Amino acid sequence: MKQRKRGAICVPQQKVLVESKTQGSIALKALMREALIIVLGVAGLALSARIRLILPFTPVPFTLQTLVLFYEILALGRRAWRITATYVLLGLAGLPVFAYGGGPGYVSSPTFGYLLGFTVAAAVGGWIIGGGLLVTPRRLLTALAASITAVYALGAAYLAAWVTILSNAPLHVALAMAVAQGIAPFIALDVVKALIAAGALYATNKAATWIRYGSRR
């Protein structure tokens, strides 16, 4: 018969099982919550892509996607890139979540660079925001500026490459055309959308705080 070592602590097996189940339940709830956030985020990008205005002088449509993108970056921080990456992968897999549908052939679209820019913007902007609940105005504006820069840098570069391949235009001509058609018509509106996203985040945070604490008073 084995003797218990002096000083050893005996933990009831039932307690261990209860703690294990509790930890498993917490992990499952966290996973489900994360999945729900991704689903809602992807749905927001997909729906905002359908609200589009086709302009006659550029292949790039006006949509509300960047408004949703900026809000998700500010609200989710480091986790925002998971939404944009999932969104792009689902679109390439064939789901009609992009402005003009979906499918692997979308990589040949002149606007595909903006979709790549979404994920880079979410990664960079989300990293700047971080994972904290309190974000200073300076950090918020820096994240928005970095996000806008990432979207336009990749979007314009991809558009310039598309113009070069299609028309065999010199690179400097293609870049000038990409700036004229892919940046200049939209940059001011995207700055406004970034400010709206910041205001919306402030409003939702205030509402959430009131629901959680103010309604109990």
From TrEMBL:
Pfam families according to UniProt: BioY
Subcellular location: Cell membrane
Keyword Isomerase: no
Domain of life: Archaea
Protein name in the entry: BioY protein
Any one GO cellular component localisation term in the record: plasma membrane
Swiss-Prot/TrEMBL keywords: Cell membrane, Membrane, Transmembrane, Transmembrane helix, Transport
Membrane topology term: Multi-pass membrane protein
Molecular function (Gene Ontology), one example: biotin transmembrane transporter activity
Keyword match Membrane: yes
Residue stretches spanning the membrane: 30-47, 53-74, 81-100, 112-134, 141-163, 183-203
Family the UniProt entry places it in: Belongs to the BioY family.
